[in-house]
Amino acid sequence: MLLNREGWQVGKDLVYRLYKEEGLGLRKRPTGRRRAVVHRQERFRPTGPNQVWAMDFVADQLSDGRRFRSLAVVDIYTRESLAIECGQSLRGEDVVRVLNRVKEQRGLPQLLFCDNGSEFTGQIMDLWAYRNGVKIDFSRPGKPTDNAFCESFNGTFRAECLDTNWFQSLAEAKQVIEAWREEYNVSRPHRALADRTPAEFASQIALKRDLTETKTGQRLTQ
């Protein structure tokens, strides 16, 4: 005890009795881990294509040791690989350029899932999201499971493409990676899609939508 070290020959029972008599008290140390007062809401679960896209970076290197990065964009519902952009230095403006390219091909998502990297949190991304009416849902720091679908895709991308090829140049890497992306969409079945490929699943959804719109139009004209 600190009092004993200072020369006071007292025990804990005497100290406790004196504290009680003087109406004093010590704050008890809280037990257990501190928990957040407000629980994080569950992330939005898409029910159709183009509702939620996920983005993340994957790093690799060329045969001469030069590093490069790949930006992967995935549709969470259909599991389609929408784009894989490669470059030695990808910034926020490069992310926006890729999103605009995918936007021209298939429209806009409602939500974007991504981590808190500077490429995603900068002003240019914030402005793009505002102008296009897209909400960005950032992962919590240290919680890669918040972007699990893109993490899973990137694991497949690394295992089946990056780790099996030895790129001599960035141009070669772009060519091989784009060929792999197209093959992934049309040739790789997913159990979550009832063993259909992303392209098959997306085309079946589009066909059902077209049939529904046709039937609705016929009823309206009758």
Automatic annotation (TrEMBL):
Top-level taxon in the UniProt lineage: Bacteria
NCBIfam families (alphabetical): transpos_IS3 (NF033516)
Record protein name field: Putative transposase
InterPro entries recorded: Integrase_cat-core, RNaseH-like_sf, RNaseH_sf, Transpos_IS3
Species of the source: Silvibacterium bohemicum
UniProt-listed GO biological process terms: DNA integration
Domain Integrase catalytic: 45-206
A GO MF term: nucleic acid binding
Coiled-coil residue windows: none
